[in-house]
Each structure stands twice: as C-alpha cells, then as structure tokens.
Amino acid sequence: MEKNTDRSAPPEETAKKLNLTKSRTGIQQMFDEVAPTYDFLNHLLSLGIDNYWRAAATARAKKLTAKTPAPSILDVATGTGDLAAAMGKIPGATVTALDLSPQMLAIARKKYPGITFHEGYAEALPFKDASFDIVSAGFGVRNFEDLEKGMQEFHRVLKPGGSALIIEPMIPRAAILKKLYLIYFKKVLPKIAGLFSKSTFAYDYLPHSVEQFPQAEAFAAILKKAGFSAAEYRPMTFETSILYIARK
Q: Which EC number applies (predicted)?
C-alpha cells in the first residue's frame, strides 16, 4: 500500500484506497506505518478515555473468571499490547496476544516483555480448540478481512462457558451527538492526526471503518451466527464506544 502523503488527493482516489485497505495486506501495511505514533495518537484523539474503555473490559473479564483460579486469556488484534497488559492484571491470569503487524508487535514486546506475542491473523488463529477462558479484542475487529470467520475463530478457541469481550468505537444514535461525533471523526480527527503522523490516510480510514462496521444489535447477531449462545452489548461514554460480551 502506498503512503498517502498527498493531503490533496482526489476524493475518488481516497475512496478507492479505503476499499483496498480492507485486504489483509493493506491493513498490515497501514498499521506498520502508524506504529511509531499509534499510542500517542490513541490517547490524544480519545482524550485519554481509551484507558477507561480497556479498564471496563478488564473488569468484566475479571468478573467472568472469578471462579477460575488461573484464567487463560487471548488478546487478538493486540496492537501495542495495552489491552493484553490490562488483562494481565487479573489475578492468576496467563495472557497471550496476537496481531498481524510486525511493527506494532515490536513495540508491544518492548513495552510488555512478560506477555507472549504472536504474529498472525484472526481468521486463522494458531491455537487449539477450547484453549482460552477469555478472548478479547480492543478496537481491531472492524479491520478483519473476514468478520464472520474471525468470530468463528474466537468461538473455536474459547473453552465451553468462555467469553469474548470486544471493544469498538460506536457512532452515537442520538441525532445531536451523532452529528457532533461525525464532525469530529471526519473533519477534526484527521487534521490533528496529520500534525503528528506521516500516514494521514490511516486517519481517513478510521471514520470510514467505524461507519461501515455493524454496530449494536447487528454485530450481536453476527456473534450469535458464529456460534455464541448469547451476545450483549454495553455502550460507553455517551455511545462513543461499545463493549460486546458473547458467551460460548
């Protein structure tokens, strides 16, 4: 994938690249490119609230595994490992993490040497059936090349009674909040990101990917189709983020 350093690229060219990025190779290259500034921009653009969202997912995982002495946890699309590290604070937990971007993983391994990181794809997880009590994913599921296959893999590697915990951005449903959110996401966020990152395209892709992703009831239905017996969701922070909980 070519670097989009031309901020005046025609809209049709940007749209074409946005569609191409959904390929596995395109996603990998994009995240390799943004890796150096990824953590800084995540915290900046979310005003630090991303830490709260990870904490909420971790608290739910802790509750779900309260009766499990040594829960095994897999964090998929781990990026630089922040959610995996949060999950690692659960008493007795063993955390394994996976991502498709070598550059993101290089940063994750330096930040969290106590976690085992694997390079790989969600649609073909390199783990045996029924290996984990929890499978988590923070802000990465919408980038899967094959969403349904990825959810089937989450289900496959979970132990009976295990749970998937998935955090994704959410577009607020209230009209006024939705309008403000989209203005920030489409107009303000890419400009701020452009001040710190060479990959302005990656932050044009972000709002596009959120808009295209099925949210709330629609994604819960996909989880059930993948084999989960139950799926619920909890909007967070004025419906700007959402936590999905699916039970095997």
A: 2.1.1.163
Query: Is 99 marked within a binding site?
Result: yes
User: Residue 80, annotated ligand binder?
Assistant: yes
Cα distance between residue 168 and residue 245, in whole Å: 12
- pLDDT score of 201: 64
Burial profile 144-154: b = 16 or more Cβ within 10 angstroms, e = fewer: bbebeebbbbb
pTM: predicted TM-score of the whole model, two decimal places = 0.90
Task: Enumerate domains of the chain plus CATH numbers.
Answer: 1-248 (3.40.50.150)
More confident residue, 192 or 78: 78
- Spatial distance between the Cα atoms of 58 and 245, rounded to a whole number of angstroms: 12
Tens digit of each residue's pLDDT (9 = 90 or more) over 47-80: 899 999 999 999 999 999 999 999 999 999 999 9
pLDDT by residue (tens digit) across 164-173? 999 999 999 9
